[in-house]
Amino acid sequence: MASSRADADAVRALEHVPLALPEGLEISWIGVSGYRISYAGVALFVDPYVSRAPLRDVLLRRPLLPDPVMVDRYLDAGGAEVAGVLVGHTHFDHAVDAPAIARRHRCGAYGSASLRRLMALHGLAELAVEVEPYRRYELGPFVVSFTPSRHSRLILGRKVPMAGELCCEQLDGLRMGAYRCGQVWGIRIEVAGIALYHQGSADLIDDALRAEPVDLFLAGVAGRGVTPRYWERVLRRLDPRVVVATHYDDFFKPLGGPEGFTARVKLDELPDEIAAVSRDATVAALRRVDRLPAPSASAPRQPPA
User: Domains along the chain?
Assistant: First the structure.
């Protein structure tokens, strides 16, 4: 209980750190490692997961599929054209809702061979794009590229959970264990004169991550404690202006309810960890989409950052 209070206090403080985004650029955190990024009437979704299967469904080995009600409520594009869905790896908390967005907006879903397999199970093989390392994909005003990466070894610091390729023959077999990790990608996004880097799990392939500075590092923080010298290694290459903490909320708790935190995530220690490596990077967080104030009918919606 005390750790949850400390995490809540820490994240509330981080939410007040400004991101200083270019005019017109909006970044919304939709929970876990999920983001909606909008600019000039065009949106991208990254690792969207709002369906939030309860732990009971996982334990009972029920299929984990998009929840249409939650997708309608929290994956709205706000009238923007959706240029694509980007998926860093195919664990369920990153990939479940990608097919639902691709179907709704008839947009491409970009990621690994495992993502292509998932899309085919949903009857959407024609919308799947198996990406090539470092290739630059132009998606409206966004230029996107994918960097080979690694998932943190969360099992006793030695093993990646549900490693290997997504394996399933039919939709009703998509239980948690079927959502295997597949190839892991870090995702670089260039838009409005700035660069962002999204990493859904706290590990990397040192030689694969090019030394190219970014403005915002959307950093999954839950697994950082099992990755040796993680901040030293990744920040040396990315040199971000702002580290935006992500993937720290309890993804078994539904959106719209009380916020929970990943066990032992220690958000209060995050600023000191990063300051020990980088004097220049500030640390921030975004309010999750279900905690944003409803837009006023008489006023334009304001960016959440």
Answer: 2-18+29-288 (3.60.15.10)
